[in-house]
Design goal:
Helix Hairpins, alpha+beta, 5-stranded antiparallel beta sheet, 623 residues, 22 strands, single chain, Beta-Lactamase
Length: 623
């Protein structure tokens, strides 16, 4: 039973529960009052108190109006000499019984004039069944009077009862309905509360004095105050009681049903809101552009990725807001999506205005319950880093292939070159040392040896998987790199100052050392536009030898300083650098137990410094 009541009141708020209980209590008390005939006097007392409160409320309204009128009259008196035509209120001015000023019709002049019996006070009057409330003052022999419609004040204060206002002598000033029995009650108005029978009805009457000269009475049938309840002499019937209980039960059941519906509706709306917020957070957190586009190319919605990149974007045509074009994009697949109801995608370049690069653009149709496309989700993915990485890998593969090719070419050149040198040396023996022919042959031999050295360096540089550690002068690698870049140095008119005069012997892979200085000197050449300078110098002590490669090129920006040695990082255009040179150089240097660092000032200089620890430079490295 308890569980049933808990379930019954589950959907009622505390306020509604108190309201229902209060109604039941009131109904129970009402039954007791109206079944018990002895409670009649209590009921009458309640009615008289209700009437008294209504009269006091009316008197309060009348007093507020009279105070306003007094203020109005005093203001008129002190400004009497000014123009009075513009007044918003009613005004009459009398002197010696004559009207000096009036802004009301002549009938009201007469009625109000006759209503004023003293030199100062309040007056009530009636004009064509319209009651008037006014006040007047006597100043310097003149009477200033003003008034308002009394009916309006009564309607604002009294709700359904009737009002009677009369002088102390019994003459009527204002009366509502029931005018035919005023002569019956007029003699009893000195009593504050009483009742009379008129036309078979018992009338409740309450009177209150007002300004000594007037009596305000309120009257209405008793049944007006307890309409809907039975007469005091009639007990409530069983059918009426059952009918009332049934009505209350039906209202209670309807209330429960409505509450259950509202509760379920709020629950599902909350779930929908949570799912919507979850979906929106997911879409907003995607590091890709997401737009909702109509069949007319209008952008209906865009996520944070789009609004951050294009803060000025607004509802408009997608081709204009996204790409800056005035017409539909030539590669657009939107019409195809709406027609075929299938996802479409393309890869294009420079799709978002102000953000050059490569983009994947995907269009996904949104279908309704009938399978028709209502709108399209456009996904914009920036694949510029991926494309650049692919290009760098391709370039790296090209360089690797170029190394293999260089090794192969070097081998092919080396064999005939050995033959040329041998034959030249044999041929040189047939001529005297100071002869012209001998001099020409010596030049051939010298050039052949130089070529052989270059070929050998190419073989060392291109040798794959060879970790042969040997002792050699590191200046060989520096000179090899300078020779490799000879044509580029001449084209850019760069002055190369090799200030390393003393040999620096190290034990390392000659091919890898060639690669180190090719990377460093190559970067310096790329950093110089023209007419620049590259300086190679060294510093030696007992513990450390430092080799510096210095150029006066464009330098390295501060924001790029932490990424210089990162793999695939480059500031060069696509196809002009892999971003692997300095990363490989650092790896080679670190493997030897050395270190490499740099200093740079944008548009002034860059200096890469290799620090060789002398105690390790000639140690055996077994790989």
């Amino acid at each position: 039973m308890l569980a049933m009541w808990k379930k019954l009141f589950k959907y009622l708020s505390p306020f509604e529960l108190v309201l229902v209980v209060s109604m039941l209590v009131i109904l129970f008390i009402s039954l007791i009052i109206y079944i018990d005939k002895k409670s009649n006097e209590k009921l009458k007392f309640f009615v008289y108190k209700t009437q008294e409160k209504s009269i006091l409320r009316l008197i309060s309204q009348i007093e507020d109006e009279l105070a306003r009128q007094d203020s109005f009259l005093n203001k008129i008196y002190f400004n009497y000499n000014s123009k009075l035509d513009h007044l918003s209120g009613n005004l009459l001015i009398f002197e010696n019984g004559e009207i000096l000023f009036s802004n009301v019709d002549s009938n009201k002049n007469y009625v109000i004039k006759n209503a004023i019996t003293k030199s100062q006070g309040v007056f009530f009057a009636s004009d064509n069944d319209i009651s008037i409330l006014g006040s007047y003052i006597l100043k310097d022999g003149r009477i200033f009077a003003t008034f308002v419609n009394l009916e309006k004040i009564i309607k604002e204060s009294i709700f359904g009862e009737n009002i009677l206002i009369n002088f102390r002598d019994g003459s009527i000033v204002h009366a509502s309905e029931y005018k035919d029995f005023f002569n019956i009650i007029r003699r009893d108005l000195t009593n504050r509360q009483f009742s009379v029978i008129n036309g078979g009805e018992e009338i409740a009457i309450t009177s209150v004095k007002f300004y000594d000269d007037f009596i305000i009475s309120i009257y209405a049938p008793f049944k007006y105050y307890y309409s809907g309840l039975v007469d005091k002499d009639v007990r409530i019937g069983v059918p009426a009681f059952i009918f009332g209980v049934v009505i209350l039960s039906l209202l209670f059941i309807i209330k429960m049903s409505v509450n259950r519906f509202v509760s379920e509706k709020e629950k599902y709306e909350k779930l929908f809101q949570l799912e919507h917020e979850k979906f929106q957070k997911i879409v907003q957190s995607i590091d890709e552009g997401v737009n909702l586009i109509s069949s007319d190319y209008d952008i209906l919605w865009g996520n944070d990725y789009i609004t951050k990149k294009l803060p000025d974007i607004k509802v408009g045509k997608c081709y204009h807001e996204l790409t800056g074009l005035n017409n539909r994009c030539s590669f657009c697949m939107l019409d195809k999506v709406f027609n075929e109801k299938k996802t479409q995608s393309i890869t294009t370049k420079d799709f978002l205005k102000g953000y050059p690069g490569f983009y994947d653009v995907i269009w996904v149709p949104l279908l309704d319950e009938k399978g028709e496309v209502t709108s399209c989700v456009e996904i914009i993915r920036d694949i510029t880093p991926i494309v650049e990485m692919q290009n760098k890998i391709i370039q790296s593969e090209k360089l690797s292939a170029l190394g293999l090719l260089a090794g192969g070419v070097a081998h092919e050149i080396n064999n005939p070159l050995v033959g040329i040198l041998n034959m030249s040396q044999l041929l040189a023996r047939r001529f005297e040392e100071k002869s012209k022919e001998r001099g020409m042959i010596d030049l051939i031999i010298e050039a052949g040896k130089e070529t052989k050295n270059i070929v050998q360096s190419l073989l060392d540089y291109s040798r794959q998987g060879s970790e042969k550690m040997e002792k050699f002068d590191i200046r060989e690698s520096i000179n090899f790199a300078i020779k490799i870049f000879g044509s580029r140095i001449k084209d850019k008119k760069i002055i190369v100052e090799n200030r390393i005069d003393s040999p620096i012997f190290v034990k390392a892979s000659k091919g890898k050392m060639h690669q180190v200085f090719i990377n460093l000197i190559g970067n310096s050449i790329d950093a110089i536009e023209s007419n620049g300078r590259i300086i190679l110098e060294s510093e030696s002590s007992d513990e450390v030898t430092k080799i510096k490669v210095i150029d006066n090129g464009k330098g390295i920006k501060k924001e790029d300083a932490d990424k210089v040695f990162d793999p695939f990082f480059t500031t060069k255009e696509v196809g002009k650098g892999t971003g692997l040179g300095l990363s490989i150089t650092q790896g080679i240097i670190n493997d030897l137990g050395w270190s490499i660092s740099f200093q740079s000032e944008p548009d002034r200089f860059t200096c890469f410094e290799i620090k060789i620890v002398n105690s390790r430079s000639l140690e055996a490295h077994d790989g």
